[in-house]
Structure formats: C-alpha cells, structure tokens
Amino acid sequence: MTDRLKHYLPEDVPDNLFTQNKLNRMGLVQTSEHVALVSYPEQKREYKLFDINNTRKRKKQQGFSLVERDLTVEQVLEERKRELEVRKGQLG
C-alpha cells in the first residue's frame, strides 16, 4: 500500500494534509486511512498524513491535559511555517 502513497518532504506538504498529532491539537479525529507520508530524511522518520476533509470533531472528554487543543487550521499552518524556518536553519 505504501508504494501508491505520495511522499512529501516537510516543506512540500499541502495545506490540507496534517499528521495525527496536529489533528489531535485541532480537536479532530481522522475518519479514513492516511493519504500520504511526510519524510524527515535527517531523522530517518516518516509520519502519516491525513486529509482534513476526512475528519470529524473529537468528542469532548472531562479531565485535564497539558496538550493545547482546539487550535484553528490557520494556527497550525502558522506553526508549520515556523517549524520549517527552524528546520531550514538547522539544515543550512
């Protein structure tokens, strides 16, 4: 299955694709399989990417969490932009 999936570098990921961690921070849960992968060659890591159009709002649960939730798509995209700037600086 992974042969047919599109692979992206972090700077090439489209704005509608997010990792499961980012979806969690937006209060969303995926409703279908991942559609692509993002590769970080320097870390030798790959992460699944999910289409934001195939998500639903997570059910609210009582309790305490240190994870900031319910970020907007714009906030996550701005965070992604900062992460890419840091990555570019690290890689040279």
Number of helices: 2
Report the strand count.
Answer: 6
Biggest sheet architecture:
4 strands, mixed
Give the structural class. Answer: alpha+beta
Low-confidence stretches: none
Concise summary:
With about 90 residues, this protein is an alpha+beta fold. Helix content is about 25%, strand content about 25%.
Describe this entry's structure for a reader.
- The protein has 92 residues and is of the alpha+beta class.
- 27% of the residues lie in helices and 25% in strands.
- It has 2 helices and 6 strands.
- The strands form 2 sheets. A 4-stranded mixed beta sheet has the order 1-4-5-2. The chain has a two-stranded antiparallel sheet with strand order 3-6.
- Strand 4 and strand 5 (45-51) form a beta hairpin.
- The mean pLDDT is 87.
